[in-house]
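FIELD: query
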Amino acid sequence: MIDFTLFKTRSKSKLFLFLLMLSVLYSTASSYESEVKRNVILKLENSLQNLSNPSEKKIIGRRIKFLHRKVVSKSETYTATRALNDNANTTNFQTVKQQTNDNGTEIILSLEITFGQKIKAPQLGNSVNWTISGPSGTKSGLGNALNEYVFDKPGKYEISLIDNSAAAKAHSKEESCAHEKVPSKINVTVFPIRMTFLGDELKVSSDLHKGVETTGISVSIPVVIETYGNQSLDLKYTNATTAGVGSNIIAKLKSGTTLKQGKQVLEYELSGIAEVEAYIQFNFIDINGRTQTAALKKPIQ
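FIELD: result
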């Protein structure tokens, strides 16, 4: 991976450095995974804010937009993982799909939430008409009122959006237009079960040490389960992995565990070794197949 922090910024203008970075990234784009490419572009976009010369910002901005179109293919589907915000009862988009049709590039968003939640849609102006179709019937509205809609019943929903703004019409004629396109469709899957891991309450039966096998040590974490109606509570994903430098620790749900509505504590038995002193986090998978993370408060020593 290219470490762009190695480039020095002593020159009078950062324009040359930005152009160099963009050229190197584009010429090697096929060598990297899509997520890496997008992360690099994001860093460049953030660095763009440090340029003070308006003309330089305009040039670099155009190059970044061009690179983004080349790196993120219009036929590509990718995942941008976002943690659920249960306190706000909203969730961010998880999947974005861009595909080309006769009218240009069509953007389709997909996401998964649980019953009783709202979505956090992109900023929408009142020129955007939307219609929701699904188990709760049909509902139409304008702009950001979409974010106030509560998906109270489980099932599959489809949201159709039409942007009637002048900027949108100009965008359809000019591919390089700076106007951000509104998605044409949002597919929403609403799950009937909500399972929340309370990461702040994660506990370990004893301290973990570098280079020492963790067999015999367990972690416990409270979860809160809410269901729509009488749903079967069958947790298929009983293993949790860890993320951290040098960690190959696995956590396995204690045999015989049964899930119930409300709050309960789940216990996982550990195996594996952490080879270096570092912080680690556990990646638990909930009943809907989504990952929720919880970090150890103390580093492995």
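FIELD: remark
The chain has three domains: 13-71, 77-191, 194-295.
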